[in-house]
Amino acid sequence: MEYRQLGSSGLRVSEISLGSWLTFGSSVDFSGTRDLVHAAYDLGVNLFDTADVYARGKAEEALGSALEGIPRPYAVIATKCFFPMSGQPNDRGLSRKHIFESVEGSLRRLRTDYIDLHQCHRPDPSVPIEETVCAYEDLVRQGKILYWGVSEWRAAHIVDACRVADARSAYRPVSNQPQYNLARRQIEREVMPVSQREGLGQIVFSPLAQGVLTGKYTGGARPPGTRADDPERGQFMGAFLADDVLERVDRLRPIAAEMEVSLAQLALAWCLRRANVASVIVGATSVKQIEENAAAAGVAIPPELDARIDEILPA
User: Fold this and answer.
1) Total domains, the chain
2) Nearest to residue 203, comparing CAs of 86, 46, 82, 23?
3) How far is the CA of 252 from the CAs of 119, 166, 180, 299, in angstroms?
4) Does residue 136 carry a catalytic annotation?
5) In a domain, 282, yes or no
6) Cβ atoms 196, 226 nearer than 8 A
């Protein structure tokens, strides 16, 4: 496993991280979660990502249980808040009240005294950015979180948060968690350059386009047990399953073969070719998947092959 600095912070995270969206607490039970987490840890993965809203808290509970036996200083636990956790008006968003209460709930479910990285799952235009920044400043000073970051924020929102933090001599966000993969490259235009300038590292979600970039859906196939075969888990796949995207994925096969890697490893290595990307989050339902994905760490794509990839799936 290879490790990278998270933005301009001193935190080092594994290039491959393990996520829990649509898996822990739902499609993967507690016993299976423990097997996955410990297999990932044995392969050098130190970053484990979740969110309060995943399976309505069950993902955090499953991860907290699975991390037992792993020394707490050796794991980097990341979670998030923003989305509604109930029908109550204050049980959502990025207000001081909700952030504080969400952190307390996450600490309890994760069975830990502190969270390494707490992230704003989405921007909240209904709350002054000053309130959100100050809430994180207080939580860091209380020792309940060590770093804070954002997810799916536009470049302008990131700049606003950094400027407010600087004006108040408060802690800045250190990370952004965007969707980024070969089929979705929008953050290259503004978000990535601004993040680089402001010292935020990217922790990428959906680097395999929810499995499409593994090649398993070639020709429109929907293998039993896959995400695309499940109406609930596959509801966000949308445009990734378009015929032209699947055809382009097939055109990547000779490149992967030339590099002697799988399509999944090629897709992960492609995301990691950017220095601003600190880690790519993979979801897994089997130890075999984790082993394959972890092997993408440290894989370098030769410039001539990178150019061919750009021709197939341009920005």
Assistant:
1) 1
2) 46
3) 34, 44, 17, 16
4) no
5) yes
6) no
Closest CA to 63 of 98, 92, 106, 101: 106
- pLDDT attached to residue 211: 87
| Mean pLDDT per 10-residue segment, the chain (315 residues) | 98 98 93 97 98 97 97 98 97 98 98 98 97 98 98 98 98 98 95 98 95 81 59 61 85 96 97 97 95 97 96 91
Rounded Cα–Cα distance for residues 238 and 228 (Å): 10
Q: How many CB atoms lie within 10 A of CB 57?
A: 18
Q: CB under 8 Å to 313, separation ≥6 — which residues? A: 182, 183, 185, 248, 252
Gap between the Cα atoms of 300 and 268, Å rounded:
10
Note the pLDDT of residue 93.
Answer: 98
Which tokens is 250 given? 């097939």
Q: Alpha-carbon distance 48 to 77, whole Å?
A: 5
Q: Is the pTM of this model over 0.85?
A: yes
In the beta sheet, which residues pair with residue 18? Answer: 48, 282
Q: 3-state DSSP helix/strand/coil percent for the chain, to nearest 5?
A: 45, 15, 40
Cα distance between the two ends of the chain: 28
Reduced to 3 states (helix: H, G, I; strand: E, B; else coil), residue 192 is: helix
Instruction: Assess if residue 280 is contained within a domain.
Output: yes
Q: Which of 3, 41, 54, 74 is catalytic?
A: 54
> Is 236 among the domain residues?
no
Cβ-contact 45, 16 below 8 angstroms: yes
Residue 9: give the domain boundaries. Answer: 3-209+265-301
C-alpha separations of 248 from 273, 305, 313 in Å: 20, 15, 7
Domain assignment present for 151: yes
Residue 61 in contact with residue 31, Cβ under 8 Å? no
The CATH number of whichever domain residue 152 belongs to comes to: 3.20.20.100
